[in-house]
Design a protein that fits this description.
single chain; Rossmann fold; about 5% strand; globular
Length: about 300
Amino acid sequence: MTRSHGPDFICVGMPKAGTGWLYDQLDAHPDFWMPPVKELVYLNKPYPPLNFVDDNGAAALTREQRLAAANGTASPAAGERRVRRFPLHNRDVAFLKYASTGRGKPRDLDFYAGLFAFKGDLLSGDITPPYCNIESHLVSEIGGRFPETKILLLVRDPVARVWSRICMAHAGGKGFDTALLSDAAAFHRYLQDTHKLGGLSATQTYRRWRAHAPNLSVRYFFFDHIVGEPQTVRRDILEFLGANPNETGSRLPPDYNRKAKAKLEMPPLARAVLVHYFKGELLASAEIFGGPAVTWPAAYGLS
């Protein structure tokens, strides 16, 4: 069987809604060849930097990755925009050499299609959460260029999703000031001023793709189900993508989560600010997505 040229699917978000889980599950499934870097970060950049590769076609490694590569393992500190798979397979090497030819050049959907030329008869795709911000005109271009590509959106209660992002920043030492959690006005401004927190909307992303790429097959899946029913949602996603949901050759259990770790406790003041900030999104999610999203507003005392 010969697959279509280009990505078989694109996951367009949301951040902190299970995209790492999705990559790990598909990367471990024998029906897929996934690029050796989770987030290509190509479609949302006018001049995609492709920072995971150098100009010579070699993986651009952090110090931690260089040490891990020497030991034949992937560094847990590699990040989602760096090569994670060591040793590299022949397909991976060819992918990196090709990707290096597009570093810093203007975005080109034909070049983007070529990033998936190494999949052969397997399925492949791009899982880049910031694609949730892709503008309408580009959504239309993507729909026209890749009419057979399927679009996935992973959705999560926005209050919990943004809090998870804050916990990640705090755990990673990225400068989150916990004093904000005791100052409602300051925390609200922080949400407003930090686009990756307060500026993202799953409902708007879904509407945009349905409106401006109506020819594409678009489907959303709930983080709630990834947590509570991983086997079922894994099967649903595999069926949607055209893979064998009964394949037992996967090296990974459905409930595997390499990012599971302790999080900050959400104080009442922060919870109140987040609920107020995302009230509209909570209510819209219940109306548009249904399913578990119907319970989200009531969980925060909204109706």
